[in-house]
Amino acid sequence: MILHYYFARRFLKVFLGMLMIFFLFVSLLDLVDQLRRFDASVTFGQVLTLTLLNTPQALYQMLPLVMILASIALFLSLARSSELVVSRASGRSGLASLIAPAMVAAVIGAVSVGMGNPIVAATSKRFSDLAERYDNGGNNVLSIGADGLWLRQGDDTGQTVIRAARTNPEATALYDVSFVAYAPNGGPVRRIEAAEARLEPGAWILHDAKSWPLHPGVNPETAAYRLETLLVPSTLTQDNIRDRFGNPSAVSIWDLSGFIGDLERAGFSARRHQVWLQMELARPLFLVALVLVGAGFTMRHSRLGRTGISVLAAIMLGFGLYYIRNFAQIMGENGQISPYLAAWAPPVAALLLALGLILHMEDG
Asked: What's the whole-model pTM score?
């Protein structure tokens, strides 16, 4: 038990040290990128805030890389100090020495999903809102709920709030839609209801529309008029509409199931979010597999030589498993395989591969 605690403590210290190094490196790169993105109207303090908000997302994506590098660093250190030799001489197998690091990796994975994921979702959303505000004043907002899809668009002439009961998966057509236009001073000036609204470059094309003027002293119903086709100028594009809701990492894993239901009721495809949900649940297993991969190549004593080749092989195999996992995610999002298979097959395969490698290295 004491030896398990010792290995677990060593691995946690190495992991935290590696994570801090990556945090400083990613923060510096993102700070330079944000300074290039915004002009002099955005202060350095605002840019630094954006950097600190954006860094957790990048670090969260790089967690598998940090994990396998920490595993390699730990077992290289244990092999060079002959601690693994002493452990084996005491009757403890090499596989038993992996229990503590594997459990630490599983706990880190569970904490990253249960606590890190909501933090990343919150910081990513805040980063997106602030970046959009600094870019164009924060005129475009999207929200999806049980009562439908809500959009806000605007420019110097005023704001327009849009509500639709549902939409098509491409986010180019809204159905059972209403537009409420506001003047720059904040008061409503016009309301429009239409059976359908299609987004074209620079404008919404409304079909079977009815418009009510909302000026003071005017009876809206008396002055209302109906048109077969009505054009409403818009600053929105299909890409920035889909980007507002299409990134599953911007939704906390605790709210993701409800968000998937809202997406499906609004008419959007929720497959991408379903795949992301399953992949997040499988993340701890994948991190454990990466720890075992790193250990399989670096547990041998350094006197046996070829340490550099072993480290390179471990890193290359870790990268290969990571990209296979991403490839499976893409196939799941495209509907070629089920979300469960896309999320769970790569971690299970990686775990079995790592166990086979360790057993071969230990027992020949």
From this structure: 0.75
